[in-house]
């Protein structure tokens, strides 16, 4: 399979897996009706984050194929993985509102709930930064 086609397929799978994880976690925490309600309320954020994650995964797979056995590739993976991780934590942290009162941290829960949309925007910003970062690396490797 061609490198580009493989990267696109794996990127799409990454986006779909992220959506599956989103629905699984929210359904386990609060039930399917709440998960669907949250998705319909914030679908544009959730799909943007999922798509951004899929793009990062696809770019990474493509980059990995291009620079096999290159010592610099581990640094790229760590930096991009950190950005994706930060975006996911920002994305999903507002769901802690459902769990934190149980463990006695209601002040943090209400703060996260109050800034839910802002957390989504931060996550999207981090996702864009991750795409730009790894996209730049891909551009440099392809240009060589």
Instruction: Specify the helix fraction band.
Output: over 70%
Give the low-pLDDT segments: 86-91
Question: What would you report as the Rg, rounded to the nearest angstrom?
Answer: 17 Å
From N to C, what is the helix and strand string? HHHHHH
Average pLDDT: 75
Counting DSSP E segments of at least 2 residues, the number of strands comes to: 0
Principal-axis shape: elongated
Tally of individual helices: 6
Q: Work out the count of structural domains.
A: 1
Largest sheet: none
Straight-line N-to-C gap: 22 Å
Sheet-strand content, in percent, reads under 5%
Short description:
With 144 residues, the protein is mainly α. The chain is 87% helix and 0% strand. The protein has one domain.
Key words describing this protein structure:
mainly alpha, 6 helices, single chain, 144 residues, elongated
What does this structure look like?
- This protein has 144 residues and is mainly α.
- The protein has one domain (3-143).
- It contains six helices and no strands.
- It has helices spanning 3-30, 32-66, 72-92, 96-99, 106-114, 116-143.
- Helix 1 runs antiparallel to helix 2 and helix 3 packs antiparallel against helix 6 (116-143).
- It is elongated and about 50 Å long.
- The model is unreliable at 86-91 (pLDDT under 50).
Topology summary:
Blueprint: H1 3-30, H2 32-66, H3 72-92, H4 96-99, H5 106-114, H6 116-143
Helix pairs in contact: 1-2, 2-3, 2-6, 3-6
